[in-house]
Amino acid sequence: MIKKGFSFEINKKHFKLDKESVKNILLVGLPLSLQDAFVNISFLIITSVINTIGVIASASVGVVGKIIMFAMLPPISFGSAVSAMTAQNIGAGEHKRARKVLYYGILFSLIFGIFATLYSQFYPETLTSIFSNDIEVINSSNQYLMSFSIDCIMVSFVFCMNGYLSGIGKSIVSLIHSLIATFGVRIPLTYILNKTAGVTLYELGLAAPISTFVSILICFIYLYWTYRKDKLNYNDNNINIECDENTILL
């Protein structure tokens, strides 16, 4: 472009920050970045708690972590797609179509989530044995994977809902429910279970889907509340329009 030149004038004064754009980017992006940071911190805390059980448990968590990371790629991808498509539809004023995007995003994510969970329930050793040859580690990993894999179904809802919330510019809601579920449920539950006598990695693995379920409830409540609110506003606007038309006719 520099070599061939521009068809219009361009210089340093044309490069400046647009305050409204910067504000909108920060309102959406900052909560998402904080959410990712806090989630990663929570994983470190949970790992440190489980590490106190022993070397076998520590190795098992590492093995399952690799498997779950791969299994959650589809819902993560669909969540990103929901975010982009929701923003496009909201920008076009197609709020109903944006909700359909959320619906189908969850549906497609569930296909992969249910498959991953069912496979992990019946054939966990075929996955865990890829990363370890130690029988104890495999058996322990199987227990952890069987319970943790249920989260693959749960995140099919949460990731897509987070994408929808980001698309409508409400990523702060994603941050709030993530903090509540992670620091209010998952970490305390993991710590309490870890202190319980005779607890296994199967019980510890249940902390993930339980905390994600809390996120789902919060998201459902918020989305239902906003839907009802939008519906009431729509009805009120229709009443006003009808009154205006009647006034004109009279």
UniProtKB/TrEMBL annotation:
Role this protein plays: Multidrug efflux pump.
Protein name: Probable multidrug resistance protein NorM
Keyword Membrane recorded: yes
Pfam families, alphabetized: MatE
GO MF annotation list: antiporter activity; xenobiotic transmembrane transporter activity
GO CC aspect terms: plasma membrane
Organism (species): Clostridium thermobutyricum
Entry keywords, A to Z: Membrane, Transmembrane, Transmembrane helix, Transport
Transmembrane segments: 37-61, 102-123, 143-165, 172-192, 204-225
InterPro entries: MATE_fam (IPR002528), MATE_MdtK (IPR050222)
Keyword Transport: yes
Family that this chain belongs to: Belongs to the multi antimicrobial extrusion (MATE) (TC 2.A.66.1) family.
